[in-house]
Amino acid sequence: MAAGDPCVEASASAAPQDIVTIIVCSSCRDATGTDARPRPGEVLASATRAQNTASDVRVEEVECLGNCKRRLSAALTKPGAWSYVFGDLRPEAAGDLVAGAQLFHTSTDGLLPWRGRPDSLKRGLVARIPPLALFKDKT
Fold first, then answer.
1. Span 30-56, pLDDT tens digits
2. 10 Å Cβ neighbour count for 118?
3. Which of 31, 55, 93, 98 has CB atoms 3.0–4.6 Å from 10's, for a disulfide?
4. What pLDDT is recorded for position 136?
5. SS3 per residue for 70-136
6. Rounded distance, CA 128 to CA 66, Å?
7. If we measure between CA atoms, which residue out of 135, 101, 97, 138 comes closest to residue 119?
8. Is the dihedral of CA 22, 23, 26, 29 positive or negative?
């Protein structure tokens, strides 16, 4: 993200442990598999970034989340908490990702609450990944 990007500037004011990151797969294609640009994943990432106004949420893009059978894909993560991967999203789900990230930010137990979660994030759940700190003392 470029300097001057409102998402970067807004995120700078929150402590790193308080930040929820929305990770959007920018390489996701539509069901036809076309290479046309912008790809639906790029559209979802741009729309998510445009809808995010929270200082405690940032939006990042990655080339591939490896969830191609359930494209469009995105993930929510925050330090010390579980991470969530979603699929079967639509470009219109940008608002749901932002709402889910804000709900996740308010969580005190490191879990994304089911109640209040947008429907696309309920139906589209692919995986819930535990925080690595959960395993550090078990070796």
1. 878 788 889 999 999 999 999 999 899
2. 17
3. 55
4. 76
5. HCCCEEEECCCCCEEEECCCCHHHHHHHHHHHHHHHHCCCCCCCCCCCCHHHHHCEEEEECCHHHHH
6. 15
7. 97
8. negative
Cβ-count burial of 71 within 10 angstroms (0-12 exposed, 13-18 middle, 19+ buried)?
buried
**Cβ distance 44 to 93 under 8 Å?**
yes
Query: CB under 8 Å to 29, separation ≥6 — which residues?
Result: 35, 39, 40, 41, 71
Quick one: DSSP state of residue 32?
T
CA-based Rg of the chain, rounded to a whole angstrom? 15
State how far the Cα of 17 lies from the Cα of 60, in Å rounded to an integer.
16
Query: pLDDT by residue (tens digit) across 68-121?
Result: 999 899 999 999 999 999 999 998 999 999 999 999 999 989 999 999 999 999
Amino acid at 50: A
Separation between Cα atoms, residue 3 and residue 9, nearest integer Å: 8
